[in-house]
Amino acid sequence: MNLILLGPPGCGKGTQAQILQDRFGAVQLSTGEMLRAAVKAGTTLGQQAETIMNAGKLVPDDLIVSMIAERIDEPDCRGGFILDGFPRTVAQAKALDAMLEEKGLKLDHVIELEVDEAVLFARIEGRAAESGGAPRADDNPETLKKRLGVYREQTAPILPYYRDTERLASVDGMQDIDEVTRQLVAILEGN
Ligand code: AMP
Q: Which of 44, 51, 90, 113 would be 11's cystine partner, CB 3.0–4.6 Å?
């Protein structure tokens, strides 16, 4: 099963991707996590990405697309993958379609988690508090505001791209975690 979870920062994509990974055996591919690992390891990609990430902006499409293309070729992705945080621009969505076609793969589902921005602020503040004094460098209200702006301008245009090709399903991400999972599972199981 190959799946994309879409939605603004803090909408719960990461949490749900992890739950679905355990349940369906498809690997969670979080581009944000992959980039944070690259920053930590001090790779060339990490050095290129760090300042951009801390400013709440998007890392260039070509870097992200090649990172994902290589990752999807790894053996653990054969049982399927859950894209979390990718694609984030229409160019990435188109590159993904081309890449999957070339690899002989296809997307089974594209699901959007819909949330309201006021709730996102409350969540991100909670996430910063829970991390016990070591929050992600980009998890603060000021950067979140920027990341939401970037989402609106650069990522939300992906939704019509998938809607127009009848591949988009939506789930209300403001319900509690278990209910969101239940509705995602119903879509994935075709109920
Ligand atoms: P996330 O953990 O998904 O919120 O991502 C954290 C940061 O990593 C984002 O604010 C971007 O700077 C960068 N990033 C993650 N995924 C992408 C992507 N698909 N395209 C561009 N930048 C990304």
A: 113
Question: Does 36 participate in catalysis according to the annotation?
Answer: no
Question: What residues make up the domain containing 171?
Answer: 2-188
Is there an atom of ligand 1 within 6 Å of 12 CB?
no
Low-confidence ranges of the chain (pLDDT < 70): 128, 131-135, 191
The number of the ligand 1 atom at minimal distance from the alpha carbon of 31 is: 16
Distant-in-sequence, close-in-space partners of 66: CB < 8 Å, separation ≥ 6: none
Tally the domains of the chain. 1
The domain that contains 178 carries what CATH number?
Answer: 3.40.50.300
Atom of ligand 1 nearest to the CA of 56: 10
Write the CA distances from 109 to 39, 42, 74, integer angstroms.
Answer: 30, 34, 21
pTM: 0.92
